Amino acid sequence: MGRDETYDTYDVIVVGSGGGGLIGAYTAAARGLKTLCIEKTDVVGGTTAYSGAGLWFPGAAPIDRADAENDVEAARRYLRAVVDDQDRERLQDAYLSTGARLIDELEQNPHFGEFTHQPVPDYFHDAPDASPAGHTVFPRDVPAEELGDLAGWVRTTIYGERFGHDPGPVLSGGRALIGRALAAFLATGHGTVARKTALESLIVEDGKVVGVTAAQDGRQLRIRARRGVLLAAGGFERSKELRDEHQRLGLTGEWSNGGPGNTGDALLAGLAAGADTQLLDEAWFVPGVVQPDGLPIFHSGTRSGIWVNAEGERFVNETAPYDQVGHVMARLHRDTGVDHTSCHWVFDQAHADRDGFGGPPEEGIQPSWLESGAVRRAETLEELAQIIGVPAKALTATVDEFNGYASTGVDEKFQRGQSPWDQMYFHIVGFPARNPLNYMGKPSPHLTNPLLMPLEKPPYYAARIVLGDIGTKGGLRIDEHARVLRHDGSPIEGLYAAGNTAAPMSGRVYPGAGTPIGSSMVFGHRAALGMADEVH
To answer: What is the β-pairing status of strands 191-194 and 35-38?
Structure first.
């Protein structure tokens, strides 16, 4: 490795540059603490940069400004009901007491500017106090020219990395959040970012974490921290070994949409320092549509067609919130003996005409999908079944059953189209929810639910859906101050964790849009407050 060097001494060291890492780093640096953020890859942003940057923050000012429902106590009752885990209630209370205050603080900094509220329904619509408008706030887009050279530091989109797509002159979604946080952090005058610097281990003296060892350009660095170390380096979704050990699903990480550097380095470092862990069998499971290059990209909901398993049968509401669909795929794969980590999205020409596939609706199915075999085509359902390897009799029976539901507008099996989340897709395809519906602008009296469009217009198509994720979910056990805990519940002095490096306040569920990044930011912020002696 080369010689061991002492890099410098900081007040705070942050490992990872996603939402939790950069917000933690900014919080510390804004309070005058000399702060170093190390990033394993050559760009900053981690998985957050891929995201839409939603932040589930009940009580936040942008929700009030939008005149939307904003009752924190109602959100607490909802959160308690859907998570249903007393061990996580203190984390939930810390989350709810901090999110709105964090937005208030960030909005005072011109680098962040104002956040906005966009209505996204809470994911468990039938739980007590679920909000049909949700509690999700978003950062505003930022022109790349406003960030200057820093724009080039920010991780590009998945489509940019995979297919070379130019994201254009404006950073949006997660890239906007990361670009704004990076600029704000460096503008404090107390912040440093070291890219291509990988955590190797924690420096522990007399039971206290006092720094890190890291690899950079063939050197091993020893970097000391006076106040503490925040581990916010994502999960272990890219580690086949750790996934095999903890998840029993045969997932290697190739199907993940987590950051490419997320191989569990911070988790392993915490374990070596004596940390306890929780929920290592969990992930933010999501379905992914396999692209022409053979790998999936996260899919948030299906507007038409059906998904069938290896036996040619429907098994889920295809338009349900993505985490719930992903967990159904994982559970059925483990419990039934039928492969649900890979399934088929079956649709017809009417879908292709209305929604397209892989591009703008008016362009139909993009040629690269058919040429690569990512989408298969057949004139009959029987022929399609043979091509994709499912029983033809089962597939035709499944389609007949679904078409019956389409004629009545009621999915008796999985209730597709009935929840506020499902109905959000009515707007996406141009149909106002709960109003008389038209198909392609023409009267269609039989189509009483646009998310139950019948499959009856040949040719028929099938795309492949696989079980992906947007990061693993289990990690180091933390308390409400983001301090990492030992097995006996005592905190490891000087060690904090946030984001997917830590086990989440939301347990095994995904309560609403923006819970993962919101949690990462809240506990990164709370960790920095603790190191700045401002514990809330």
So the answer is: parallel
Q: List the one residue out of 340, 347, 197 whose CA is nearest residue 265.
A: 197
User: Which pLDDT band, with edges at 50, 70 and 90, does 5 fall under?
Assistant: low
CA-nearest of 65, 129, 133 to 103 is 65
Residue pLDDT, tens place only, 394-428: 999 999 999 999 999 999 999 999 999 988 865 55
- Exposure pattern of 161-193 as b/e (b: 16+ CB <10 Å)? eeeeeebeeebbbbbbbbbbbbbbbbebebbeb
Q: What is d(CA 342, CA 479) in angstroms, rounded to the nearest whole number? A: 37
Q: pLDDT tens-digit profile of 71-90?
A: 999 999 999 999 999 999 99
Instruction: Indicate left, alpha or beta for 437 from its phi (over 0: left) and psi (-120 to 50: alpha).
Output: beta
- Binning pLDDT at 50, 70 and 90, where does residue 435 land? very low
Question: What is the C-alpha to C-alpha distance for residues 111 and 184, in angstroms, rounded to an integer?
Answer: 5
Tell me which amino acid residue 366 is.
Q
- Candidates 36, 39, 88; CA nearest to 519 is 88
Total length of the chain: 536
Q: Distance between the two ends of the chain, CA-based, in angstroms?
A: 42
Round to whole Å and give the CA distance between 279 and 263.
Answer: 17
Q: Which of 471, 494, 472 is nearest to 483 (CA)?
A: 494
Q: Is the pLDDT of residue 372 over 80?
A: yes
Helices then strands (H, E): number in the chain? 16, 23
The chain-wide mean pLDDT, for the chain, equals: 93
Strand partners, 365: 357
User: Cβ of 396: how many Cβ atoms within 10 Å?
Assistant: 16
Q: Report pTM.
A: 0.94
Q: Are 134 and 421 in contact (CB under 8 A)?
A: no
2: left (phi over 0), alpha (psi -120 to 50) or beta: left
Nearest alpha carbon to residue 159 among 289, 303, 304: 289
Pairing between strand 4-15 and 219-231?
parallel
Q: Which residues pair with 283 in a beta bridge?
A: 472
pLDDT confidence tier of residue 8, bands split at 50, 70 and 90: confident
3-state secondary structure 338-385: CCCCEEEEEEEHHHHHHHCECCCHHHCECHHHHHHCCEEEECCHHHHH
| Residue with the two structure tokens 């362009």 | 363
Which DSSP letter does residue 314 get? B
pLDDT at 360: 83
Q: Give ∠ CA 46-102-508 in degrees, rounded to 5.
A: 55
Specify burial of residue 3 (Cβ count, 10 A radius: 0-12, 13-18, 19+): exposed
pLDDT of residue 447: 56
Rounded CA-CA distance 312/397 in Å is 9
Using the Cα atoms of residue 95, residue 483, residue 471 and residue 310 in order, give the sign of their dihedral: negative
Specify the amino acid at residue 515: T
